[in-house]
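Please, is this right?
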Amino acid sequence: MTVLGDLLHLIGRYGNLVVFFGVALEGAGVPLPGETVLIAAGVLVHRGVLDFGDTLFFGISGAVVGSQIGYWVGRFGGRPFVLRWGRYVLITPERLGQAEAFFARHGGSAVFLARFVAGLRILGSFVAGTSRMPWGKFALYSLLGGIVWAAAAVSLGYFLWASISLVEHWIGRVSLLLVTALALALLLRWTYRRATRRGRPGGGPPGPDNRLS
């Protein structure tokens, strides 16, 4: 039986508890396939085994709770603690360093983006904590990322329920597609704002004299 088949059996038997703990443990640093859990749950939603609203609630709740655990572990324990105990869940200095570089490049938005990248979902919360990112900022981006990610993954399983092989084919790629779409949206927004500024006299907002003329 495949990983997805095993998850379909487990979720069918134990319901949204598997959804919550599967997603939460991944967010807390345990290398579990949280995205696959949500996709499998979406398949069961279409089959009428689970309710869409309940599944989405447990998926988002798991994402938020798990990320909070990871954040506070990183904040109180620091980088040495994460590396010392993280080796038991496959966190290496190289992987942690890559995650730190990603956060350094993208700032607060990295918390949102990390939700859509498998390795960063495990390390992102730790890095936010070790870098002492303000909790309010982290909590906001974590919530927004959890909502979009969980809704997309559950919906993917729901709409591709008829072909398990097709679902398995798309596991891991939905994140890449979402990140690409998000990056394109940000690029279009930046291009629009740049073009708008160039269209104004002097390349900036109109001054008092311009408004009176």
About this structure: Confidence is low (pLDDT under 50) at residues 209-213. The chain has one domain: 3-199. The CA atoms of residues 42 and 154 lie 4 Å apart.
